[in-house]
Amino acid sequence: MTDAPLAYDVGVHNGDDTGYYLHLGYRVVAVEANPAWAQRVRERFGDEVAEGRLEVLNVAVAPEPGEVDFHVSEQNDAWASLETDIPSRGGSYRTIRVPARRFEDILAEHGVPEHLKVDIEGFDRLCLEGLGPDTRPRFVSVEMDHATGDRDIALLAGLGYDRFACIRQNDFAAIRPESVRRLVELRRRRGPLRTFLVRAVRRVRRMLLPPRDGDWRFGHGASGPTGLRLPAEAWMSADEALEVWRVLHKADGDLGAGGVGEWFDMHARLPEPG
Length: 274
Known about the structure:
alpha/beta; eight-stranded mixed sheet; 14 strands; single chain; 36% helix
């Protein structure tokens, strides 16, 4: 397995993305701050851990090594973060101390992946800031921050990433400047009630007809296809990606709570060698 490509799953949650990367033949480094989730993933993929195909790191990515406060909802331990706004959604939460590492130190120890997925609840940028000219994955995906996602796009472009794809997470559709403007206009016309009903229908449809990549079925909350498996028409320039972000950022202010009510990942890829 030493010749298998490497993927990082940073923010493992229930391990569905890790399972997908293993299914594609990757070796996987899974980084998860929540001790409960890290243990569940070790148990779920015990054979892969034993075979050396998977290593689970129970650490938080932080600016400095050491220990940090990590907050976990008492109602739903999937709601966990270095900040309290997410775990407090359900009411009470507990605070635990967890080990912390800089992302650049993790890369130095475990190697540079072909694919890097990051979803660590508002702290994705710590991983991007940990990349350098010699430690750039070929493909990167991060949850798009509607408030400051332009900084992530600019950071990646500065690292040499020249193609970007915005992927809507409820159906893995590629969103481009023209389609995001249509999306916002539809949300504006529907109003809050119809938007709520549309979201409910989409949730049911996804449960009954989950998106697939070949024989792999994506679960709810999965990040979806790797950059290597996105269609050619999904990719756009950095300027186009910034335009998508600008439309969504403005919509959050214009449409009020929830904005367009969608969750997006921003993918980036390096130029092809040669």
